[in-house]
Amino acid sequence: MVSHDKKQPIGIFDSGIGGLTVANAIMRHLPEEQLIYFGDTTHFPYGDKSADNIRFYSLKISKFLLEQGCKMIVVACNSASSTAYKDLLEFFSHVGLFVNVVDPLVRAVCVENKKKVGVIATKATINSGVYERRLKELCPDTEVVSLATPLLAPMIEEGFVHNQVSSAVLSSYLSQPELEGIEALLLACTHYPLIRDDISAYFDHKVQILDSTDIVALEIKSKLKEMNLLNDKRVASNTFYVSDYTDSFEQTARFFYKDHVRLQERDIW
Fold this sequence. Notes:
- By secondary structure, the chain is of the alpha/beta class.
- It is 43% helix and 16% strand.
- The strands form two sheets. Strands 4-3-1-2-9-10 form a six-stranded parallel β-sheet, with helices on both faces. Strands 6-5-7-8 form a four-stranded parallel β-sheet, sandwiched between helices.
- It is globular.
């Protein structure tokens, strides 16, 4: 294992803007850490890509982030976490630390001891079966129902949130019979926290809504503290890369980070 320095940045990647929800949580919980974000807008969305393609994108981006000196890579994409995480560990665990967004969320919901839990995510994440497998391993008495919601991430990426379009799409998905009677709903896509309030409102705020943002940030903090790699003084500003510039990405990035965004286009393919 290559030794790391606490001053090194944390790398984060997603297929688009969704991972910014995780990056924002990391900034709130770990304000001294420098972040390098990569949004793969060229290949967005990952949810409808093949497993082989997602692995290729994830390996390429992780290599790029490690070359930027990152001490840890956060796979802030459920499709990549469920499909490519094992490959990333196989190729790069000797040179960097890795955190996915699946395992911390599964552990968090199992603590809640719910009888029936719903999972909504992209097709790639649902088809991988990762949430059902992990939940059955950790809390076998919990009934798990999964629903692919492929229109949500593109809808959010295009800015259709908190309006009639998003309301109609959400109602179509959340009214599906398999979600009837759920006590908790996992938002198994990092785009979905951007419409978390709308989802909660659909269920009259009677269903517990869990997402990976704060949960993953606290997992990162714990891992870095354990390895004495928590930064105590920021040495550089955050950097945001995209593989293809889009107005929606910059608008969302500025929503989270105001004017503190240095958006750079970088073709690593």
